[in-house]
Amino acid sequence: MHVRTLTGGLAAALVVSFSLAGGQAVAAPPDAEGASLAARVLIYDASGSAEFRSAVDRGAAIWNESVDAVELRPAAAGQRANIRVLADNGWPRALPTTLGNGTVYIGRQAVDQGYDTIRISAHELGHILGLPDRKPGPCSSLMSGSTAGTACTNPYPNAAEKTEVEGNFGGALAGPAPAARAEVIVD
């Protein structure tokens, strides 16, 4: 996972402030120059993902490699999860409840039709991270989903998708997160 740090003018503005009354310089906390923005940690439980467990773990790892503002970690025994991942016989889908929370279904129907399990996993996790479907779309867009066709195995978000997730989770210099929405996203 990448670590972002505050630099330049923003850090300089935080390092020293002047009191209007006495003109006294006040130092910022000792690590203000190199303070990193902490990623929001989301716990996922893939214990119900059956034969797709390794694809789910790889999909989460791809997001961890791709963005700084959020980190997906597998649930430890007895740990409460933000994201539950299940296998079923339907079409893959995500049911976000709030930003960073919800249920993902890795549907066997798409897998049986030839769609890549890692791409499915990364795509559905993208919905939990606040991304909508972008259909129709090219293979270079993770959120194009099934419209890229069964030959598409690209599981990586493109630059715009990465930027959107960074913004959703308050990445460096990003705006506020969008309002959470409860919806079923069927791909």
Describe the structure.
The chain is 26% helix and 22% strand. It is an alpha/beta fold. The chain has a 6-stranded mixed beta sheet. The protein has a two-stranded antiparallel ribbon with strand order 1-2. It is globular, with a radius of gyration of 20 Å. It starts with 7 loop residues before the first helix and ends with a strand.
Supply database-style keywords.
disordered N terminus, globular, alpha/beta, two-stranded antiparallel ribbon, six-stranded mixed sheet
**CA-to-CA gap between the ends?**
28 Å
Across the major sheet, the strand order is 4-3-5-7-6-8
Computed CA radius of gyration, to the nearest angstrom: 20 Å
Portion of residues within helices: 25-40%
Most strands sheet: 6 strands, mixed
Layout: helices, strands, pairs:
Blueprint: H1 8-15, E1 16-18, E2 25-27, E3 40-48, H2 53-66, E4 70-74, E5 83-88, E6 93-98, E7 101-107, H3 108-112, H4 117-128, H5 159-168, E8 185-186
Parallel strand pairs: 3-4, 3-5, 5-7
Antiparallel strand pairs: 1-2, 6-7, 6-8
Helix pairs in contact: 2-4
